[in-house]
Every structure is written in structure tokens, then in C-alpha cells.
């Protein structure tokens, strides 16, 4: 009896009853249309007129289901009552495309059509089957004008079979409801599932969210990585001259304090964007070229800085990326260029692009490899590529040169 009267079968039956209730307004309008040309005074007395009204109701239901909000309502009801397997996902959100609307309309029409049939059977057949079942036991029911059974009184064996006939009617009705519910559950993933356009939109949202996460990861890597490199270098130098040069130690501690304070502020900004979520994170706001002087003054290595061109003409997004590229370049110089090795930095603003050139010496021996490798140079290349720029890095004149060219104007493009 579980397939006919189990919990899932009962929920699907309830779902069909809801469909029958949703059909009623359309059916009543259909009866008005039929009554306007029918010769019968009472439309409900004629099965033909009722079927005709039912036929008028279904197209009207399909039209109303073309509205975008019809799909999320249908999906909510199907998820709660149809007993769908968890591996058959349904689409979330309103139907935006023509294909999605057509599928939602077909589902809604199928739901109200089957719901109307099962609801009619439930309302009409249930009392009749109960009445037939109690015929042998209640004379008042046998004498009822609603049941034409006088001929059965002459055949007691027929009357004795009446309870079985009533139970068979109820079982048949339950079987029809179970079959209709199973049909709806089988069609739900097809008609209410994501269309190819829905899947494409979901993939685009995931790609956008991943791009934001990658961007935030770059911000954390560049900001925190540079700060840790600078603090490590300053602390190590201060430890070596702790007794012989107190003034240098004082300057190193001051640099460590300022570096950590600035990094904590940048870290709070990035973490705030992570709390907002990918949809709200339009891009982390960070320092620009106007903050370079403070970065170079406390970066842990001597830097010869040359600026050419009007930096005020550089867009905010380009200035932020240029700052991060310089910061990551200084971090690499700190980690790999040797303690106190001088760095030459030149930033040139031309008519169409901003050029960054950073030269640093190579160490006497290769630095130890970090587990998993570094992410600095790939991150720099990603930053430049997002703006339509390019980068390069490699040995140059006995040292190491990092270059980056960023366009000052990026029409039709933006940061993720």
C-alpha cells in the first residue's frame, strides 16, 4: 500500500489537489464561454459542456504561466510536494528566456490538467465508493435516490460484494492519483529544470565570483606578502646591529610599525569585501600611485625612483594596479635580491600607456624554492591582463628586470 498511500504518494496527491484548485478560475471562465452559446440552461448538467469548458480552461492557464514569476512558484511547490530525487535539480529564479517560459507554461498546464481530473475524481468518487461500501449495512443508504440499487436487493450475493466494489473504486482512484503524481515528478526536472541559457548564466555567475575571489587573493598576497617580507628583513637587520647601532634599530622598528599598520588597514578592506559576498564586491579599493612615496620609504631596500609624465592623468583602477605591481616587485627584490640590495624604479606616463620598469640585482646564489612555488609574477601578469596590458620579467644586464605596460584607457572593459 506504500506506493498508493505512503507519505510521498499523499504529498503528490495534495500537489494534484492544489492543481485542481488552481484550475477552477479558468474552468469557471470556460463555463461562461460555453454557456454563452450552449442550449442547456445548466452547463454543469452536461458532461460534454464540462469537457468543453475544461478544454477552454487549459489554454488560459498556459497563457498566465508565461509570466516569469510562474516558474519559481511552480518550482517551490514541486520541490515541497513532488518527492523529487536530490540529483535532479530544478531552476531557481524567474523564467527569463522564451524557452524557459514555454517549459514553465507546459508544466503549469500539465499540473492543473491532471490536478483537475484527480480533484474531480476525489470529490465525486470518494462519497460514491463509500456509499457503495456500506450498502449491506445501512438500509437508509440502499433506499437513497442517489444510488439506484433496488434490483440488487433480489440478489444478496451482489449486495455482499458491494464493500469490495467500493474498496476497489478507492484503490483505483488512489492508483490514478499515484500515477499522475509520478508523471509530474518525472516531468518536473525536464520542464522546470535549468535550460541551456540558465546553465550558461549560472556558469557566468560562477566565473564572475571566481574572478572576484582571485582578485581578492591577489590583493592579500601582494599586500600581506610584501609586508611580511619587509618586516622580516627589517627585524633581521635590527637584530644583527642591536648592540652596535641603536639608531638603526629605532628606524627599523619604526618602519616595521608603519608597514604593519598600513597592511592591517589594507587587510581590513579586503576582508570587508569578502564579507559582502561576490555579488557586491565590485573590486577592492586600494592605494594608488600617490601612495608610492610612503611605500618606497619603508619598503626595506634603498630605491632610486624616477617618475615621468603626468600621473594625475592615470585612471584610479590603473593606478591601483600599478601600485600593487610595484609592491610585488619590491617583495620579490626583498626575498631574492639580497639584503639591502638597491633597486631602480622608473614609472613613465605616456599618451596611451603607463610603463613600469624595475631593476634589481640578482643574488649571489639562487634562493631556496618555496613549497608550491611563488605566485607573484603570475599575479602581476593577471593584473596587467585584466586591463589589457602586458608584463615581462627576466635577467637584464647582470640583474633582474620587471616591466609592465598598462593602457591608460580600457574602453568596454572593467575590473571584475
From TrEMBL:
Principal EC category: transferase
Pfam families, per database record: HisKA_3
Keyword Kinase carried by entry: yes
Positions of transmembrane segments: 12-39, 51-70, 105-138, 158-185
Signal peptide: none
Signal transduction histidine kinase subgroup 3 dimerisation and phosphoacceptor domain boundaries: 213-278
Recorded GO MF terms: kinase activity
Catalyzed reactions: ATP + protein L-histidine = ADP + protein N-phospho-L-histidine
Record keywords: ATP-binding, Kinase, Membrane, Nucleotide-binding, Phosphoprotein, Transferase, Transmembrane, Transmembrane helix, Two-component regulatory system
EC number: 2.7.13.3
Name the UniProt record assigns to this protein: histidine kinase
Source taxonomy: Bacteria, Bacillati, Actinomycetota, Actinomycetes, Kitasatosporales
Amino acid at each position: 500500500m506504500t506506493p498508493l498511500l505512503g507519505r510521498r504518494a499523499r504529498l503528490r496527491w495534495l500537489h494534484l489537489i492544489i492543481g485542481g484548485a488552481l484550475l477552477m478560475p479558468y474552468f469557471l471562465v470556460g463555463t461562461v464561454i460555453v454557456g454563452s452559446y450552449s442550449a442547456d440552461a445548466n452547463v454543469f448538467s452536461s458532461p460534454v459542456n464540462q469537457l468543453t469548458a475544461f478544454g477552454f480552461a487549459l489554454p488560459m492557464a498556459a497563457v498566465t504561466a508565461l509570466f516569469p514569476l510562474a516558474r519559481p512558484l511552480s518550482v517551490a511547490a514541486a520541490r515541497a510536494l513532488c518527492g523529487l530525487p536530490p540529483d535532479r535539480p530544478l531552476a531557481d529564479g524567474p523564467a527569463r528566456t522564451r524557452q524557459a517560459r514555454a517549459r514553465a507554461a507546459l508544466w503549469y498546464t500539465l499540473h492543473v490538467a491532471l490536478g483537475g481530473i484527480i480533484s474531480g475524481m476525489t470529490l465525486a468518487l470518494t462519497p460514491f465508493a463509500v456509499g457503495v461500501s456500506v450498502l449491506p449495512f445501512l438500509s437508509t443508504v440502499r433506499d437513497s435516490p442517489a444510488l439506484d440499487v433496488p434490483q440488487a436487493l433480489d440478489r444478496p450475493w451482489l449486495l455482499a460484494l458491494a464493500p469490495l466494489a467500493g474498496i476497489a473504486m478507492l484503490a483505483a482512484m488512489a492508483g490514478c492519483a499515484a500515477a499522475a503524481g509520478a508523471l509530474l515528478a518525472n516531468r518536473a526536472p525536464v520542464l522546470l529544470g535549468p535550460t541551456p541559457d540558465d546553465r550558461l548564466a549560472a556558469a557566468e555567475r560562477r566565473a564572475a565570483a571566481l574572478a572576484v575571489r582571485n582578485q581578492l587573493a591577489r590583493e592579500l598576497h601582494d599586500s600581506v606578502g610584501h609586508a611580511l617580507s619587509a618586516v622580516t628583513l627589517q627585524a633581521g637587520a635590527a637584530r644583527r646591529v642591536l648592540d652596535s647601532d641603536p639608531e638603526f634599530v629605532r628606524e627599523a622598528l619604526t618602519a616595521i610599525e608603519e608597514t604593519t599598520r598600513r597592511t592591517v588597514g589594507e587587510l581590513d578592506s579586503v576582508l570587508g569585501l569578502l564579507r559582502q559576498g561576490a555579488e557586491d564586491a565590485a573590486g577592492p579599493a586600494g592605494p594608488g600611485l600617490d601612495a608610492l612615496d610612503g611605500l618606497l620609504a619603508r619598503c626595506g631596500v634603498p630605491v632610486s625612483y624616477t617618475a615621468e609624465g603626468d600621473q594625475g592623468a592615470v585612471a584610479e583602477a590603473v593606478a591601483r594596479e600599478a601600485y600593487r605591481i610595484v609592491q610585488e616587485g619590491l617583495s620579490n627584490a626583498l626575498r631574492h635580491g639580497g639584503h639591502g640590495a638597491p633597486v631602480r624604479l622608473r614609472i613613465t606616463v605616456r599618451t596611451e600607456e603607463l610603463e613600469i620598469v624595475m631593476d634589481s640585482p640578482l643574488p649571489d646564489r639562487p634562493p631556496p624554492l618555496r613549497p608550491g612555488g611563488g605566485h607573484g609574477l603570475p599575479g602581476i601578469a593577471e593584473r596587467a591582463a585584466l586591463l589589457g596590458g602586458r608584463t615581462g620579467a627576466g635577467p637584464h644586464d647582470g640583474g633582474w628586470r620587471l616591466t609592465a605596460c598598462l593602457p591608460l584607457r580600457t574602453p568596454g572593459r572593467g575590473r571584475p
